[in-house]
C-alpha cells in the first residue's frame, strides 16, 4: 500500500506549487509548463481579472488553478464568515459565505482598457491579451457556471480534473471540486491546496466527498491556515501535510503545530550547533 505522500509524487507537488505561484502575475504563458498551445481557458471575476485558469494537454489530464486573494475586495470577503449552503445538486453542508461568493459572482469579459492598450505591450504580452480576448466570457454568467462550461467538453473527452489553489483559492478549489464531483461523478482526480484557510462548517466536513483525494499543504506556522480563527465552528477537509523541520507531518492538530513551532524557535540557537547543520552547508563551498 502506498502512503498518500507517495501518491502525491514530488514532481506533482512542485508542479501545483509553481502553477499556484505563477497564477498571480497578469502575464502567463501556459506553454512553458508543458500544456498544449490551445489548452487554456481563463475565467474572470466581476472586475474582469483572472481568478481561475483551466489548463490541459491534448494527451493529458486537466489542471484547474484557483488564484488566492489579490485585492482589497478579496480580503474583505475573508471576513464574511456566516454560513452559505453549498450550491450543489445534493446537500453538501454549509461553507464560508465569502469563499462561495467568489464562485457565484458574475464572470466579466476582459476589461476594455486592456484591449485598447494592447498595442503598447511587448509581443508576448500582446499574445496573452489576444488569447484572453478569444476566450473572454459573456456577462451575466457566474464564475462556477463558466468553469463548468469550460470543463464539460474536456470531461466528455474522458479527461480527469485536478484542482489546486493558494490561500482563498484553495478554499474555492475545495468547494468547486465538491460541486463538480456531484454533477460529474468520478471526474475529480485530486485536490491540492497551499496555505488554505478552513472552508466550511462541520456539515461540509461531514458531507465532503473527496476526503481521500484532498491534500492540504501548509508550512510551519502559516497564520492563514488557522483562519477564520473560530474553533469548533470552521473545519478543514482532506489530509493535512505539514512541512516543518525538513519533514512531512500528517494531520497534526493545530495546537500541536503551534507548540512545535514555538519550541523550534526557542531551541534554534542550540540546534544550529549540531553537525548536521554544518554538513547541509557543504554546498556553500562549491559556490564560492
From TrEMBL:
Which Pfam family, an example, fits this chain? Lipase_3
Listed InterPro entries: AB_hydrolase_fold, Fungal_lipase-type, Sec_MonoDiacylglyc_Lipase
Source organism's superkingdom?
Bacteria
Instruction: Name all Fungal lipase-type domain ranges.
Output: 63-229
PANTHER family given in the database record: ALPHA/BETA-HYDROLASES SUPERFAMILY PROTEIN, FUNGAL LIPASE-LIKE DOMAIN-CONTAINING PROTEIN
Name by which UniProt lists this protein: Lipase
Amino acid at each position: 500500500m502506498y502512503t498518500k505522500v507517495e501518491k502525491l509524487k514530488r514532481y506533482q507537488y512542485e508542479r501545483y506549487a509553481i502553477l499556484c505561484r505563477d497564477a498571480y502575475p497578469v502575464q502567463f504563458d501556459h506553454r512553458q509548463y508543458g500544456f498544449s498551445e490551445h489548452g487554456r481557458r481563463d475565467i474572470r471575476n466581476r472586475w474582469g481579472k483572472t481568478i481561475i485558469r483551466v489548463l490541459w494537454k491534448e494527451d493529458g489530464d486537466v489542471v484547474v488553478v484557483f488564484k488566492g486573494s489579490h485585492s482589497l475586495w478579496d480580503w474583505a470577503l475573508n471576513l464574511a464568515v456566516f454560513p452559505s449552503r453549498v450550491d450543489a445538486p445534493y446537500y453538501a453542508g454549509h461553507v464560508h459565505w465569502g469563499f462561495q461568493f467568489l464562485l457565484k459572482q458574475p464572470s466579466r469579459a476582459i476589461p476594455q482598457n486592456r484591449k485598447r492598450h494592447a498595442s503598447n505591450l511587448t509581443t508576448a504580452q500582446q499574445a496573452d491579451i489576444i488569447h484572453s480576448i478569444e476566450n473572454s466570457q459573456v456577462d451575466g454568467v457566474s464564475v462556477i457556471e463558466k468553469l463548468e462550461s469550460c470543463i464539460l467538453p474536456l470531461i466528455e473527452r474522458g479527461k480527469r480534473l485536478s484542482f489546486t489553489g493558494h490561500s482563498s483559492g484553495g478554499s474555492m478549489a475545495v468547494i468547486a471540486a465538491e460541486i463538480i464531483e456531484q454533477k460529474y461523478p468520478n471526474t475529480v482526480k485530486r485536490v491540492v491546496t497551499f496555505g488554505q484557510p478552513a472552508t466550511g462548517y462541520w456539515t461540509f466536513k461531514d458531507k465532503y466527498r473527496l476526503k481521500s483525494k484532498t491534500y492540504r499543504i501548509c508550512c510551519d506556522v502559516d497564520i492563514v491556515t488557522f483562519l477564520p480563527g473560530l474553533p469548533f465552528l470552521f473545519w478543514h477537509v482532506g489530509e493535512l501535510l505539514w512541512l516543518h523541520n525538513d519533514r512531512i507531518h500528517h494531520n497534526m492538530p493545530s495546537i500541536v503545530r503551534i507548540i512545535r513551532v514555538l519550541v523550534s524557535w526557542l531551541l534554534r540557537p542550540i540546534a544550529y550547533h549540531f553537525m548536521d547543520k554544518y554538513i547541509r552547508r557543504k554546498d556553500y563551498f562549491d559556490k564560492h
